[in-house]
## 1
Amino acid sequence: MTQQPDSPLQFTCGAQMPNRFMLAPMTNTQSHEDGSLSNDEYDWLTMRAKGGFGLTMTCASHVQAIGKGFPGQLGIFSDDHIEGHTRLANGIKAHGSLAVIQLHHAGMRSPFEVINEKAVCPSEHDKYNARALSLEEVHQLRDDFIAAAIRSQKAGYDGVEVHGAHGYILTQFLSSKINLRNDDYGGSLSNRSRLLFEIVDGIRTACGPTFLLGVRLSPERFGMQLQEITTVTQQLIDHHHIDFLDISLWDVFKQPEDSEHQNRSLLEHFSALDFKTVKWTVAGKIRTGADVQKVLDAGVDFVSIGRSAILHYDFPKQVLKNPDFKPTGLPVSETYLKAQGLGPDFVTYMKRWDGFVAE
């Protein structure tokens, strides 16, 4: 049955989204350098909850200081961060939106100038100037993801999303090209996916059955193989008590890059899986009201909105009012973006994207 954008969505854990719109987790570089919440980050996220997103997800929030991936990143690696997160979770939920934090570690993608030391990786990686984690450090990484989830629950979030996509540390473990370990966390796919599964299972055990738990995966780039990622996706559904999967496709309407799998679209490769009671969302160039409906018609449970959520804080309300809604054209002015709740650092960050911000 085709889902409508305004229909509520119930997760296995009991949490309910009032509609089918999720704010995609987006880098915005506007919190404090110690990882604590800034007013600009608070305003950006709570404004999206007010604008009608049924689930408002934070930016990637790092679970270890060494896992910081960008300046001004919101952290969740210390109890000192709980106060800010409590304020943020309450601010999001005040507008009837589910508050979810994305748990993240950049691994080899932590820039030296950001962390002031060598980045860490499953294996030594010269290109990224990264050193290999010891087995003890892998176990600590697992425990720190779980500890971050416990902090998040204490702060009042409805749930967490474990970031296993986009070439960050859990992707690095999943990748046969990057992960060259010869212990229990390297080699076979079952070994390379072990850390992700241990983190997910540990969070479920620590936070209980009513805490919303999701995982983000991406099937391409950084040595990811589509067949392996669909296998990991199905295993998460079958054995690991998650509530939702967030599949980042870069472009939800594209063909796989691997010619071997171009018999159907990337989206169709995932829609063919048996999701059972697990809900799923996709991200990647869902920009108009028509795009939203097209994705829901493909069997996806809810949509993750990035760029259009930057351009319109109330994108869900606009689409629900007008199914043919199209976002404003680019470029847009700094004044326009500030009116949409972006702080100065976020506006500066958006200037990295060619043609987004007017000169």
## 2
Amino acid sequence: MSLYFIAFEPPPEVAEKIREITMDFAERFGAERAHNSFPHITLIPPFNYDGQNESEVTGRLMKMELTVSPFEIYLRNFNCFNKPKSPVIFLEPEANTTLQKLYLEVNAAMSIFNYAQHFHPHLTVAFRDLSPQAFINAWSEYRYKKADFHFRVERISLYKHSHGKWCPVVHRDLPSDR
């Protein structure tokens, strides 16, 4: 079995600025995991599938009917999942009906592999190794901070977990503006 997920990434210039934030979490709050990952917003969370039949996953992604054209995403606020044992701090996209529609289309097409009933889009900046005390300290500061990132979502990607990291398998462009 192999582990896959579907997401989209900000362009390199935005990703670089977000990595500065994840570096702050790594240096000041001991949360290095997000900095060692790549900035992304997940559409379909990780799911297991037979890696020998990867063409079934890639084929479904490439053949799905997508009606969503490229669109803008705005990240202006920090938010959190305040879970006692594994808190998460993230950049939250502004409400976006096009993003929701993209999720619904992708989720419907990929439901054979993993049906995600809940969609809370976010771009993680600290997780897993953020201790409960470090979370309290970091969140007391970041809850009031503002961000100003925006980028155009033009494609989605399928990633596979291989040798301890996520690697892109295939990219799917969104249909051109009509």
## 3
Amino acid sequence: MNYVVAIEPGDADNPDFGVIIPDLPGCYSQGDDLDQAIRNATEAAGLWLDTAFDEGRSAPKATPFATLYAEHPEWHNWIWAVVEVDLSKLSDKTERINITIPQRVLRRLDATARAAGDSRSGYITRMVMSGNWT
């Protein structure tokens, strides 16, 4: 998915480049230079979408540049670019993996998953997504 971004160039008081991603409300980024600003915006867009998917929302439709330009005259003197987010990296499609862990840890994992009414995979997934695994 490609999203148009508006980049405010820095000035003497604030040399950073500020980035707005209009199609992702509240998604902003910045960088010390233009290249870093675009890289950071790409990462910010991916994180924004990952959070949206966790909350059960879908990816917003990308607005064409001409529409954004017409609707936001306050950004006419800014730099415009496009960031690409690979939605396949954010897929909820299941994937079989092979991991190696000590048997005693595996027994403990299985017992804990059973006690929680979960499968091994389901338990690991739930713990990672909840942040309770650290």
